[in-house]
Every structure is written in structure tokens, then in C-alpha cells.
Amino acid sequence: MDLSTQFKQAAYLPSPEIITLSELAMKLDKPILVEGPPGVGKTALAKALATITQAELYRIQCYEGITAEQVIGEFNYQRQLLAIEMATTKTDAVSDVFTPDFFISRPLLKAIQTTEPVVLLIDEIDRADEEFEAFLLEALAENQITIPELGTISGDRTPLVVLTSNATRQLSGALRRRSLYLALDYPTPSREQEIIRLHVPDLADELYQRIVALLTTIRQADDIRQPPSISEGIELAKALTILGADYLEKDRIEEIIGILVKSKADITALRRLLATR
User: Fold this and answer.
1) I need a surface site. Which of 49, 140, 265, 276 has the fewest CB within 10 A?
2) How far, in Å, are 12, 197, 237 from residue 192 at the CA level?
């Protein structure tokens, strides 16, 4: 079965570039850096790859202030203290408390150590600071992590790594050089119709066109701060299967406006936009 068919079975409609880069990433053991606005399918790509490769998905959700310890792991200090206390009363007690037995592994270290297929999703890497980004380079380039107390831990099997970025800051050249790069944007109207149809197959052809036309209009509006993503288009299609096609008429969109935009300011802006149509 070719990769394109496998993607579709995983409910993901890939472009030729996605198919090619995914195949190269799997064969070259290279990370994929996927960059683009929120809601264009970056995280969904990692989930689809996990389904295709029958791999476990490990996810690191980045945020401002995230540290290496939070993704590598840390020593169990309580257990260490207990072992030290026992060492003072028993001659055969553990004397070295800086060993793997006392270490709690977290997603990055687990992904490197496992011998099973793994897709490692490092989501929204642009939210982390440059220090955290630099820390990742060893793991991405050499499939290993250095922990001062334990030394260098190498993996026998390289996980398939997907890094996503919303492009809120410029990532380093070092990270980009270590990755295959994929720029994603909102799909063309015809392709977005295909994506929505893949998830919600039972609507009339005209409805797919009207859904995408509405999404495109909202995305082009300057005063909509958080335009609807592909997933919100899918949610809208699902809602129409439940509520009926008339809910996409201008005078009824108000009732389902919370599917399309997610803030009070954007609801106000969308109401103004609909009033002019």
C-alpha cells in the first residue's frame, strides 16, 4: 500500500510534498520541522504518521519557560533520601543514588530509549526559549542525551520526530539544518473541500463549497484575530449533518457562530462581516 493511501486511511489528506518529506524522514532518520499558522494540520500530521507506522505517539507541548528536566526526566529525590537513610543503618544498602534506578524518565528520554516504533511530537517549539531549542540539538542530531550524573544515553532506534512551529519567533539555523522543512498554510478551496469530505462524507456537494467559501471569507477578514482552522471547518460540517443545511444560511449562522470563532471580539467582528454580505 502506498503512503498516500495510508495517509488517507489515517484520515489525513496529504500533498505530494508531505508524502515525499514523510518518506524521506522515515528513511533518513531526520526530523520534520513543520511551520505555519495554527490549525493547518501540523499536529495532525504527527498523529497520522503515528497511525501509519503503528507507533506510539510521545508528545512534548512546549511553552515559555519549559526546561530540559521537564522533557528528559529527573531523579526521584524522595527515593534517594530514603536510600541514603537506609545506607546508614544497613551494610548492604545502596550507596550510589545517582543511577538509572533512581531516575524518572520523561517523553524525550523515553523516545530515545525505547526499542519500539515511536513518533515524537515536539509541539509549538517556537513557544520555548532559545536555550531549550539549543538543548534539543544533541537529541535531534545524534539520538542521544547527556545527563551529567548518568553520562550519555544513546538510542538504538531513532524515533520519527515532528517539530511544529506557529512562526511566532525565528528558529535557529542549527535546528533548521538538522530538519527536513515543511511549510504549511491553509489549503486551496478545492483541497479543503476534499479534507472536510474525508472526515464528513455525507453532505451534498454544494454544502462543502459553501462551508469552504465561508471559511475563506472569514480568514481574509483583517479584524478576525483567530480565523477558523481546518478542524473548525470539519466541526461545522459535522454540525450541519446534525442541524441541517439551513444552518449555513446567513440568518442562522448566528446560532452556530461559536463553531467558527472562539472569542467575543471575533464574534463581534464576524457579525459585522456577515451584515455586509
Assistant:
1) 276
2) 11, 8, 12
